[in-house]
Amino acid sequence: MKDNSRGGINLVYPNYYLPLIALLILFCIPLVIKSASWMQIMVLILWYACLTLSWNFVGGFAGVLPMGHAAYAGVGAYVSTLLFINYGLTPWVGMLIGGVISVLVALLIGIPTFKLHGAYYALASIAFVELLRMVTENTKKIFGIKINGARGLLVPLKGHSPFLFQFGEKIYYYYVILAMMLIIFFISYRIQKSKLGYYLVAGGEEQEAAESLGINVTKYKLIALSISAFFMAILGTFYAQLILFIYPQGIMSLSLSFEIAFIAIIGGRGTLMGPILGAFTLVPLAELSRMYLSGSRFLGIHLMLYSSIIILVMLYMPKGLIGAFEKIYFSFTNKLFKKS
Amino acid sequence: MKMLTIKNLSKRFGGLKAVDDFSLELKGGEIVGLIGPNGAGKTTIFNLLTGVYQPDLGEIVFMGKNIKNLKPYDICFQGIGRTFQIVKPFLNRTVLYNVMVGSFLWTNDIKKAEEEAIEVLKFIGLINKKDLLGKNLTIPDRKRIEIARALATKPKLLLLDETMSGLNPTETEEAIVLVRKMQEEKKLTVLLIEHVMQVVMSLSERIAVLNHGRKIAEGTPQEVSCNENVIKAYLGEEYVTT
Amino acid sequence: MEAIINGVLMGGVYGLTALGLSLIFGVMKVINFAHGSHLMIMMYVEYWLIKSIGIDPYLSLLIVLPIAYTIGYFTQAILINPILKAEKDVREPLGVLLLTAGLWIFINNLFLMLFGANFKSADTVYSNTVLKINKMMISKPLLYAFLASLITTYLLNWLLRKTKLGKAIRATGQDREAASLMGINVYKIYNIAFGIGIAALGVAGTILIPLFYVHPFVGDVFDMRAFVIVVLGGLGSIPGALLGGLLVGVIESLAGHFLNMTWAAAVIYMIFLLALFIKPSGMFGFEKEW
Questions:
Q1: Enclosing domain of residue C160
Q2: Candidates 3.30.450, 2.60.40, 2.60.98, 1.10.3470; correct CATH number of A17-339?
Q3: Cβ separation of A213 and B88 shorter than 8 Å?
Q4: What is the pLDDT of residues B94-115, one digit of tens each?
Q5: The pTM is what?
Q6: Burial group, residue C254, by CB count within 10 angstroms (0-12, 13-18, 19+)
Q7: What structural domains and CATH numbers belong to chain B?
Q8: Handedness of CA A57, A59, A64, A69 (dihedral sign)
Q9: Are A189 and A168 a contacting pair, CB within 8 Å?
Q10: Mutation for testing the A interface, residue in B52, B77, B93 having most A CBs under 10 Å
Q11: What pLDDT digit, counting tens, does each position of B4-18 carry?
Q12: Is residue C213 part of a domain?
């Protein structure tokens, strides 16, 4: 059993017991929770966890600050939905196509923007997602295909049809997103302990030094971005199939982008468990406050929550919640194992 | 064996000629010193050699290959490593991690990278500190990590930029021994920029002297220290001599 | 033609809003994402002043400016300086970026919660008056706003170039360490600069009242324009901000004339991205290595 609370906090994730227990709990949750609205919340929590984990490839490992990342989710959602509506293509496949297109878009925007320094990069990513949203909102048709602009697209209802990525009950969505989270998590884990991971960290911390050590920093950032964009697109499709309705302000919006970035950073940027921790603590809070505080005045309550916490985190806990969490966890397990 | 041939290298920044018609040849296995007053253009030459800047004029041929327009990471791959005047360790990572970044150049396997990195750390003498974080290291140790990292990329030519400044007498002696070790055991060629005269004089087989971007003298340490132009250029400056 | 003139006038106002951002960015290398939110706050303040004591906007500047300055000063002192200090050695203080981003979202939604999303407007004596020149209708408040922007720009420029304080500010912006070695309290200068930046917004908020509805998200439009302007005009360059503003104003106006308003916004963003890719330091800015 390693005591990893000193040094290298960014690399370490708590040793195996907690994640395994947590995983077990996650598997069993649908058997315990029967209410549809609570299941919805659970699904959303996992969805956000996936989003933040995907964001983490670029925002955490690569050391840049993408503040417009929802753009890729939007691309994925729109591609798969349009393919489904117009060609009857099952979203399972549409999802993958959306992923590929999203990667192409990412490369297109990544190549010029990675030349920019931190704040400029953030600005560019914001400009991009807003541009994408505005263009989509203003477009009624592209090449004869209806896009509906700001009114959004309705995913045709097919009832419970697993082959068409639609399920009658939330429990199916839950296991799908859980599986996705495990996949993305596993890939994060492997990358962190690989040449790609080391190179991303090096390039993110000291670009000049990294290049003198033979690292083509931009190339590796683009790789990270591609992986990230691919998963974001898939998650966009998932959302489309869950809510059965997508519109630009919902899925390719600046506020969603900020939510993702904030949650990931509050949890712990660049760490493995940080984004997950962030999602699991913040999303329930947000959803609960949304349930109990309704009305047009409170539309932004979840954003207020995230933003106020990020301000506090930046001032007092820049490494994110994961730092404090690890300290508590390790002091607990140390005491536990000292007895035996 | 000619390792590095620099011919008529020139670089301007706006109106300022930072490097003016600089030429130098290095043979394999040599230790050559590059000295000159502050602002003479020494680090600029390093930056030109490693692809950080593109030269306006001149040729750079390394091991028979023209490397003038290569990017820094390609140049590292060709076999030139460097350290920086202001050290840039990866502060939030361990010493081992820092060096592994270097050793990944020649392998994709994390186990192998770790083994190679440990070898380098043993060679440099930092093996006991392999788990310390970069930000918790002393300056001399940070300089050694810079060297270790560069060594992990298995260079044939190593460019050391003022690695000895700020060291106390013992540390300086150790550093001198290390450079000699690198020359003998790793068969490295070394080009070093230094202000610490003791180091330059004792290590270098040849020295080139730079002033205002131009080479004003070249020769053995003895020749250079008696050269009139050199003495004129340095008049009025103080060094950390120990 | 009318579109061009309107563009110029509006552009002047945009330039004014960008002044503060440019100054803050030039001095502290901090991108204040919450710039639009501060503008929004100032507009609300102005709105209340008009509603409660019915004072003419331009006169109310006497009250608004000190308020704005104080808000700015303390925002910097309490929220931003601590992070700047903590990240002193890091080349790119991303923590501040996140803080201001968080601040932006927080303030906007706070105002949404406290004051509702209703669009409010405050009428002044000349709110809807127009000036007729040839066959063009030019809104008088807009004209006044433009003049006010020019005057403020000139004053700010004078402050930076001719006064001792201004020189201190510029010195800090160019080389923080050298400045502190010369006895300048760098963090205090930051506070002052931020205060001045927000004061400029105070002027902007005041002159915009007759022209725009007041609601929690009114600042966002100006926020993005301001970023575009700062990038185009160059960071830290006051005349650059004004010129950039004029450029943006004209482009937007023309695009709005020939396309529709939302495409005009998209055009601005596209130009922004292009500008970032081609010349990040802007037309007049300093070529900074940071």
A1: 25-218
A2: 1.10.3470
A3: no
A4: 999 999 999 999 999 999 999 9
A5: 0.87
A6: middle
A7: 1-79+157-164+173-242 (3.40.50.300), 84-154 (no CATH)
A8: positive
A9: no
A10: B93
A11: 899 999 998 888 888
A12: yes
